[in-house]
Design goal:
Radius of gyration: 31 Å
Strand content: 5-15%
Oligomer: single chain
Strand order of the largest sheet: 1-2-4-5-3
Number of helices: 17
Number of domains: 3
Order of helices and strands: HHEEHHEHEEHEEHHEHEEHHHHHHHEEH
Distance between the termini: 98 Å
Structural class: alpha+beta
Helix content: 40-55%
């Protein structure tokens, strides 16, 4: 008898979990309550239509996910105040004549109904009808559109992406007002069911790259996607390389400019960071502000970024190599000055450099994670007080503190290089410590070989750096005037690489 009751309960549970609605409203309500078992945010409201009192209605939604005023004003009140007789099928009449909402969909399966409830919509069901209406009533709050703190500019748009999915797509649509801007929607995450959108410009984007992006994203099988960083790590090339092969930005103007070059963007629901594919080495040194200011000033800034990158990865290694193996290169007074500064320091030069670099990274990470006021105080205390105290206590030499500080400050010029800089800097430091300048040169050659061997979705990572053609070089180490940048990157936008007219000077006066 006990087994019979158990089997009956299991059968009832299976019956409730069927994939389709039934004509019984009580059964359908029971199904939703069973699916959202122990979820007190599920709200079920039953009421009757005045013109057909025998026809009972029911709305189902999750509290906190909907706009209560929209539900009351656009759904409940129109139904309760409806005075005309039902000449049509009840559900169709409600959809077309009673409920006031810009988007209403019909569904008979449970999956789309559940999905609609989870994203903030309201489900309306009627007694005796095995269909339901999914009514758009989203009302949860989003962060306002503001300038991204990590990508601030002096000149240019001040808006940035938010965690709102459709808001981000709207920001892109406002920048590129053409029907050729296409959106392809996918759902990832077996538990989170996160919406993502692949954006591209039809006729400009490379179809092979687009197909590869869709293939890699389609192969993702994971329980949850909480940020675009999940997708980036799961689909990028050269996973063991410290260099990124997929770009990201919080600025709509940056993503729009990448789309215009033929790249593909991936927008993730709940993430303000939009991925751009492919990503090349030259993009580390590019800033959206370069294209809003004079090309001469922009080129100077870009050269400064490249020099800053070279300094931050090499200055510690070169200093260790020169002071350890090649002291004869220094002028005699400088050698004596460095020797006097190192007198009493207990650590060898290379270990001193490693410890100081580690301390600098700790201070940088602490200042980023702490609140602004405390972070600034910690930076001042760490950089000035502790640094000076360490020199006075003869724990570190003053020249090494200056070298490490220079290396750390120049790294801030190219913040997107953060991870790669740490790895490359240590590699060159160890190579210089073992073999001097020969080790440093050998390390540089290894890095260049690695960079020229990387591809981002089939595109060479060092595209245009090995070309002597000015059209290929026009937007790499310098930013050429707009009237010279007539073509898009040829390997990225194969089908249509004409950016502007071939008229001499473009819109410029002769």
């Amino acid at each position: 008898m006990l087994f019979g009751k158990k089997n009956k309960k299991e059968a009832d549970k299976l019956e409730v979990n069927k994939k389709y609605l039934k004509k019984s409203l009580e059964y359908n309500i029971k199904s939703f309550k069973n699916i959202f078992n122990n979820d007190e945010t599920l709200f079920v409201r039953r009421f009757k239509m005045p013109t057909m009192e025998q026809l009972e209605c029911c709305i189902v939604f999750i509290e906190g996910m909907i706009d209560v005023d929209v539900v009351n004003r656009n759904i409940i009140q129109p139904i309760l105040k409806n005075k005309f007789s039902m000449e049509y099928e009840p559900l169709e009449a409600l959809q077309n004549h009673v409920i006031t909402s810009h988007k209403i969909e019909k569904a008979t399966e449970m999956d789309p109904l559940i999905e609609g409830i989870l994203i903030g919509n309201t489900v309306l069901m009627l007694e005796g009808i095995s269909e339901a209406l999914i009514i758009t009533t989203k009302g949860f709050k989003f962060r306002d559109i503001a300038e991204p703190p990590s990508e601030k500019v002096i000149r240019g748009p001040r808006e940035g992406f938010t965690e709102a999915f459709m808001t981000n797509l709207t920001l892109l649509r406002r920048k590129i007002r053409t029907p050729k801007l296409k959106f392809k929607f996918l759902t990832l995450g077996t538990q989170t069911n996160t919406k993502i959108c692949i954006c591209y410009l039809e006729g400009i984007a490379n179809e092979k790259i687009l197909a590869e992006v869709e293939k890699r994203i389609g192969n993702i099988d994971i329980d949850g996607i909480l940020d675009s960083g999940y997708i980036e790590e799961l689909i990028h090339d050269s996973p063991l390389s410290p260099f990124k092969t997929i770009g990201s930005s919080e600025r709509p103007d940056v993503v729009a400019s990448r789309l215009l070059e033929g790249r593909i963007a991936v927008v993730t629901d709940g993430s303000p960071n939009v991925l751009t594919i492919p990503f090349l080495m030259q993009e580390y040194f590019q800033s959206n502000e370069d294209y809003y200011s004079d090309f001469i000033f922009a080129s100077i800034n870009r050269i400064l970024r490249i020099l800053g990158f070279l300094i931050t990865i090499s200055v510690t290694g070169v200093y260790v190599a020169l002071t350890t193996y090649h002291q004869e290169i220094f002028p005699t007074p400088l050698v004596l000055s460095i020797g006097a500064a190192r007198e009493g320091v207990p650590f060898p030069t290379v270990l001193e450099a490693i410890i100081l670099l580690f301390i600098f990274e700790v201070l940088r990470e602490a200042s980023v994670r702490m609140p602004d006021a405390i972070g600034q105080t910690m930076s001042i205390v760490g950089a000035l007080v502790l640094g000076q105290a360490a020199i006075d206590a003869k724990l570190f030499s003053a020249p090494m503190v200056v070298i490490v500080a220079l290396s750390g400050i120049t790294a801030l010029i190219v913040p997107r290089f953060k991870g790669a800089i740490i790895v490359v800097r240590l590699l060159l430091l160890f190579a210089s410590a073992f073999l001097g300048l020969y080790g440093f040169v050998f390390g540089i050659l290894l890095i260049l070989i690695h960079l020229f061997g990387i591809r981002s979705f089939g595109i060479p990572y060092m595209l245009d750096y090995n070309s002597l053609n000015f059209q290929d070089f026009k937007d790499t180490m310098i930013r050429a005037p707009w009237w010279y940048m007539r073509l898009r990157p040829k390997f990225i936008a194969k089908s249509n690489n004409q950016r502007q007219s071939n008229k001499k000077g473009g819109g410029r006066k002769s």
